[in-house]
């Protein structure tokens, strides 16, 4: 959870805020968590949601700040990439972009995490890729696992 | 499995949540994925060593203790605090969920934990015994350090098996498999043995209440209490073994 939060947010302090928030949500919706067939997909979903909210809040709070206070340059770059994308993508597209570019998940895995059909993920991912390519080169090249 | 493991699967493996046999085998056989898994595990361990970890842990304990004490808290919210101690352990990112296997007499936990019944004299694993035989339980607890075992009988009665007479779970000996000594003498009537493994001691009565709910659920589904399914509990590893007790000769 902390590893992913750092990857998305690019800052260790913000990542710990995210970890705190994710656990709060897990406590307050324990039944959903326990009912999930794959708890890690639930954790991914909630962590992504929390981190993207924090990222949006940071963008509003610090509109001109780049990657200051960041220990990991790669994470900072990824975080900035998401900030740029967030201005152009819908909420769902941004989730898909995060899971695809940052976490390098397969389409099946993204479908599992977001509880959407593979077909939907495939369609929206094409649009996300096109927009991402138009905006900037992704910080992490997608590693294809077949 | 030809392709390498994704980060999602590596996270599952690092957390002891992976269930896919092919992924588990791949993580052992592929040196690249083994290395990446080691990095994920190290990242988890490092996070637990970081100072903010303790702060997050403390904040969670404080905020939820405060809400728990409110008498007017709505029921659904109060219920969540049953999981608060478990979630404290979950802050350590150690989440083990039981994975019942319908045909096996031993249910393994994700992460490789399990409970077995051993015949006391020779240590042979058994799934059946006769009244009067002496058996001892053995748990594989990964890095969980406390164990509690309760027996559910066909009648639905729930009895503490280990540690006898204790109000909470007890520390188990370190090692790949811990024997829960002393053992016990088998009495008439088959039983389902439910093991609860955790980083922190668990209250016997809390786990008994959990089992009572599961027994009630099994009955509603038209099943025997022996077939009650072990529900996943956050921060608590669970394993189940059925001991069939045959009539004495």
What this model shows, in words?
Chain A is mainly alpha-helical and 146 residues long. Chain A has 8 helices and no strands. In chain A, α1 packs parallel to α4, α4 packs across α5 and α7 (107-114) packs across α8. Mean pLDDT of chain A is 78; it is low at 141-146. Chain B is an alpha+beta fold. Chain B has 2 domains: 7-90, no CATH class; 106-245, S-adenosyl-L-methionine-dependent methyltransferases (Single Sheet). In chain B, 34% of the residues lie in helices and 23% in strands. Chain B contains 7 helices and 10 strands. In chain B, a hairpin with a 4-residue loop joins β5 and β6. Chain A binds chain B through residues 1-4, 12-13, 16, 19-20, 23-24, 26-28, 30, 33-34, 38-41, 43-44, 103-106, 109, 113, 145-146, and chain B through 2-4, 6-8, 11-12, 15, 17, 40, 43-44, 47, 50, 52-53, 55-56, 59-60, 63-64, 77, 79-80, 83-84, 87, 90-91, 93, 95, 97, 231-234.
- What would the CATH topology of chain A be? Butyryl-CoA Dehydrogenase, subunit A, domain 3
Strand portion of chain A, in percent?
Answer: under 5%
Morphology call of chain A: globular
Cα shape of chain B: globular
Q: Helical residue percent of chain A?
A: over 70%
Number of domains of chain B: 2
The percentage of residues in β strands of chain B lies in 15-25%
Radius of gyration of chain B: 19 Å
Helix and strand pattern of chain A: HHHHHHHH
Report a brief summary of the structure.
Chain A has 146 residues and is mainly α. Chain A is built from 8 helices and no strands. Chain A has a single domain (2-135), classed as Butyryl-CoA Dehydrogenase, subunit A, domain 3 (Up-down Bundle).
Task: List its salient traits.
heterodimer, A: 146 residues, mainly alpha, Butyryl-CoA Dehydrogenase, subunit A, domain 3, 73% helix, disordered C terminus, B: 249 residues, alpha+beta, 7 helices
Give me the secondary-structure topology.
The complex is a heterodimer of chains A (146) and B (249).
Chain A (H helix, E strand, L loop, with lengths): L1 H8 L2 H17 L1 H6 L3 H23 L11 H14 L4 H12 L4 H8 L3 H18 L11
Chain B lengths: L6 H9 L5 H9 L1 H19 L1 H18 L6 H6 L3 H7 L15 E2 L6 E6 L8 E2 L4 E7 L5 E8 L4 E5 L7 E2 L6 E8 L5 E8 L5 H17 L15 E10 L4
Parallel strand pairs in B: 3-10
Antiparallel strand pairs in B: 1-10, 2-4, 4-8, 5-6, 5-7, 5-9, 9-10
Helix pairs in contact in B: 1-3, 2-3
